């Protein structure tokens, strides 16, 4: 058989434990690494902001914290090269892992149905593993007039006022003082911290 991607449904919150147990099965030889080729739990970056005090100024600011969040909770993607003989034993071994409900779209006695290549590309792109737009979600909303500090990029260290918000592209137009004049610069929302009054 040829390598293909499959999805197993899991108990939500057990994805990491299941991945660890499947890797242990590969390590101890109960499933060959030539058969279970890859395990993916697609994740996206989520930016959160945590309030803290600026040590230099004493002002309260919001610090950026980037977390990895599961894109499809309760599902794990497996790249498997099923042998023509013995595939049922491999499926049974995977299903016996605590928290695994089974292969998506198939009964326990059926051969699992592989994903289409377009679905695999979409999953890998969402997880940022293929070229294309990386999926980043900001857990902070900005409005015109918010005071921010730019922490990354060519304008790092500048404070300014938000003049425009483009939530679809995670971009902000920020007015900063540059050479004594107000200048509007466009920055990624992940490059700034909101200054709290």
Can you tell me about this structure?
By secondary structure, this protein is an alpha+beta fold. The protein has three helices and twelve strands. It has helices at 15-28, 87-95, 117-126, and strands spanning 4-10, 36-40, 43-53, 60-70, 75-80, 100-103, 136-138, 147-150, 159-166, 171-178, 181-188, 192-196. The strands form two sheets. The chain has an eight-stranded mixed beta sheet with strand order 7-3-4-12-8-9-10-11, with no helix packed on it. Strands 2-5-1-6 form a four-stranded antiparallel beta sheet, covered by helices on one side. Strand 10 and strand 11 form a beta hairpin. The longest helix has 14 residues, at 15-28. It is elongated, with a radius of gyration of 23 Å. It starts with a strand and ends with a strand.
- How is the quaternary structure best described? single chain
> What is the arithmetic mean of pLDDT?
85
Q: Determine the number of helices (DSSP H or I, runs of at least 4 residues).
A: 3
State the low-pLDDT regions, or none.
none
Number of DSSP strand runs: 12
């Amino acid at each position: 058989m040829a390598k293909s991607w499959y999805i197993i449904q899991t108990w939500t919150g057990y994805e990491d434990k299941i991945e660890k147990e499947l890797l242990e099965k590969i390590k101890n030889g109960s499933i060959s690494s030539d058969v279970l080729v890859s395990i993916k739990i697609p994740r996206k970056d989520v930016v959160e902001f945590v309030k803290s005090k600026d040590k230099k100024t004493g002002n309260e600011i919001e610090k950026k914290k980037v977390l990895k969040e599961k894109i499809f909770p309760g599902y794990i993607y497996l790249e498997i090269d099923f042998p023509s003989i013995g595939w049922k034993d491999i499926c049974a071994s995977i299903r016996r892992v605590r928290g695994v409900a089974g292969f998506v779209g198939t009964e326990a006695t059926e051969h699992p149905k592989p994903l289409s290549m377009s679905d695999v590309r979409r999953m890998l792109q969402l997880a940022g593993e293929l070229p294309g737009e990386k999926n980043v979600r900001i857990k902070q909303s900005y409005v015109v007039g918010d005071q921010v500090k730019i922490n990354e990029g060519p304008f790092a260290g500048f404070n300014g006022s938000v003049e425009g918000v483009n939530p679809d592209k995670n971009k902000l137009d920020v007015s900063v003082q540059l050479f004594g004049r107000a200048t509007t610069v466009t920055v990624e929302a992940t490059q700034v911290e909101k200054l709290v009054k």
